[in-house]
Specification:
By secondary structure, the chain is an alpha/beta fold. It has a single domain, classed as P-loop containing nucleotide triphosphate hydrolases (Rossmann fold), CATH 3.40.50.300. Helix content is 31%, strand content 20%. It has a 7-stranded mixed beta sheet with strand order 1-3-4-2-5-6-7, sandwiched between helices. The protein is globular.
Length: 193
């Protein structure tokens, strides 16, 4: 799979605008400020494909990136407190509307900040993915902010917290250092076969 020829395909503000699914889709979910945009850019070897902002909650649409073989879907971050209730409601409709459609869900990457336990919203997302029987992988972001020893401890603690057996992949990543991206690409390629 070529991760280098991915282009921006479109941005959608309501779920009814989302085009029909034609290829395997790899979706990104996680709370605001977990590093989704940075991770997408590093994964796809691009600097500004997904817009990175210092302000959490900036992704307010569903953004599609892809080529003829695969689509990557960046969903709005959840849990950002400084957003109007109406905007949170629209984000919720977008995320739920996306998952309510018939689509070629190859893999959902659920991003969690490795520096902290999974939040209640992270737990809800994992339960949702499990209940819907969607294939998913936990991606622990910001690994450059902790030592390797702490990263290993957090990986074990979060796996236990989320009640995940070894069949669910969990990848430790750092977008700034490139840690874990070869492993993450292998997980994606396997899911898209």
């Amino acid at each position: 799979m070529n991760f280098n020829n991915i282009e921006f395909k479109g941005s959608y503000g309501v779920s009814t605008q989302i085009p029909a699914s034609k290829r395997p889709e790899v979706s990104f979910v996680g709370r605001s400020n977990v590093g989704k945009s940075s991770l997408i850019n590093k994964l796809l070897n691009r600097k500004q494909l997904a817009r990175v902002s210092s302000m959490p909650g900036k992704t307010s649409t569903i953004n599609f990136f892809g080529n003829n073989d695969i689509d990557f879907v960046d969903l709005p971050g959840y849990g950002y407190a400084k957003v109007a209730k109406s905007e949170k409601g629209r984000w919720s409709e977008l995320i739920n509307g996306y998952f309510d459609q018939y689509r070629f869900y190859a893999l959902v990457l659920s991003l969690i900040d490795i520096r902290h336990p999974a939040t209640a919203l992270d737990e809800q997302m994992v339960e949702f993915l499990r209940a819907c029987e969607l294939p998913f992988c936990i991606v622990l972001t910001k690994a450059d902010k902790v030592s390797r020893n702490v990263a290993n401890q957090q990986k074990a603690a979060i796996r236990k917290q989320l009640h995940l057996d070894d069949s669910i992949p969990m990848v430790v990543c750092s977008s700034s250092k490139g840690t874990g991206f070869d492993e993450l690409r292998r997980v994606i390629e396997k899911a898209c076969q």
